[in-house]
Amino acid sequence: MEGPVLWIKDLKVWYRIYGGFLKVIDGIEMKVLLGERVGLVGETGCGKTTTMKAALHLLPPNGKVPNGQIFLDGKDISRISKSELRKIRNSGIAMIFQDPTSALNPVFTVGEQLIEAIANGKEGKSSRQENLKDAVSILEKVLMPDPQRIMRNFPFQLSGGMRQRVCIAMALSRAKKLLIADEPTTSLDVTIQAQILDLIQKIVVENNLSLILITHSLGIARQMTDRIYVMYAGTIVETAPTSVFYEEPLHPYTKGLFDSVPRLTGEGFADGIPGRIPNYLNPPLGCRFQPRCGKSLPICSQKRPPLLEISKDHWVSCFLYEGKGGGK
Ligand SMILES: Nc1ncnc2c1ncn2[C@@H]1O[C@H](COP(=O)(O)OP(=O)(O)OP(=O)(O)O)[C@@H](O)[C@H]1O
Ligand SMILES: [Mg+2]
């Protein structure tokens, strides 16, 4: 069997701030197989973007990785040189960033940026004419209206939905193996959201790409993925094949997420999860969810819960399930 396209092993990420380190990511494990579509869910600030940026060596200068390994196609890219890394980024993986405005350079036209991305994605030399043709064709693929005109525009001349499409086009021109889509539809109106998600889905399936889809929406994750990872305060608390996950969520945090989904049945607002994500300067010693958990045991505040396999490929990190599955 083929190995994973991306394997994140015991990853920790800290941010240096005035007064110390924010210990945000605390030992994450994640595997993405070839052609597998993975959803990463969890509430705001739990470290989803940080995890992906760390995997691609894109952390800001105050970000630090005190522990962990990242394997891309079996190759350890945790400690490779900048030039080697650029080669890898240009050939196999691409990311659609949460904020498309910051991912585009305001002083270059869409065409110039797209052509550069396409040239970088090619192995040998390529002619500008050829890259220009490819740029227009990829804009057509992302259903961009009037691609010829858009090529001459600067990012600020486009609507939010168009900018997002440019980012997706740029990412798709680079993605040969793995596409990371970080909330690709945030702040777009629902009709555009559906189109963009359909498009990503179509291209991922057609090209047998692996996908990591970061989303707040349990509904979108259910539609678009084969496996779900639930993240809480920099830890993976549960992972399972998508169908199993929605049938039988186990972790108290996951159950809370389901309870937080606004109800459409006229029962009023959802209960949600009381409390908030812990302070990363001084996070809880044991389970990071313990201070908010209605089911916590005395041990939960003292020890990190192990990851337990409750049924095939369904893992949960919670003492409530100890003795009910294998350990890791
Ligand atoms: N450059 C930085 N310096 C200091 N802290 C940071 C930095 N970037 C992120 N953080 C902190 O790290 C934590 C995780 O942030 P991250 O953006 O990874 O969360 P997220 O899960 O992607 O959230 P969202 O769903 O809102 O996008 C947050 O507490 C955030 O404030
Ligand atoms: Mg984010």
Distance between the termini: 22 Å
Q: Give the second-level CATH assignment, the architecture of one domain.
A: 3-Layer(aba) Sandwich
Ranges with pLDDT <50 over ≥5 residues? none
Structure ligands: adenosine-5'-triphosphate, magnesium ion
Q: So, the CATH homologous superfamily of one domain?
A: P-loop containing nucleotide triphosphate hydrolases
Query: What's the CATH topology name of one domain?
Result: Rossmann fold
- Count of individual helical segments: 11
The CATH class of one domain turns out to be Alpha Beta
Q: How much helix is in the residues?
A: 25-40%
β-sheet strand percentage = 15-25%
Rg, Cα atoms, Å: 21 Å
Structural category: alpha/beta
State the strand order across the main sheet: 6-7-8-3-9-10-12-11
Principal-axis shape equals globular
Architecture blueprint of SSEs:
Blueprint: E1 6-17, E2 20-32, E3 37-41, H1 48-55, E4 63-72, E5 75-76, H2 82-91, E6 93-96, H3 100-103, H4 110-121, H5 128-141, H6 147-152, H7 160-174, E7 178-182, H8 190-206, E8 210-214, H9 218-224, E9 227-232, E10 235-241, H10 242-247, H11 252-260, E11 307-311, E12 314-317
Parallel strand pairs: 3-8, 3-9, 6-7, 7-8
Antiparallel strand pairs: 1-2, 1-4, 4-5, 9-10, 10-12, 11-12
Helix pairs in contact: 4-5, 4-7, 5-7, 7-8
The chain binds adenosine-5'-triphosphate (ATP) and magnesium ion.
The site of adenosine-5'-triphosphate (ATP) has 16 residues, from strand 1, strand 2 and helix 1.
In short:
The protein is built from eleven helices and twelve strands. The protein is α/β, with parallel strands linked by helices. It binds adenosine-5'-triphosphate and magnesium ion (MG).
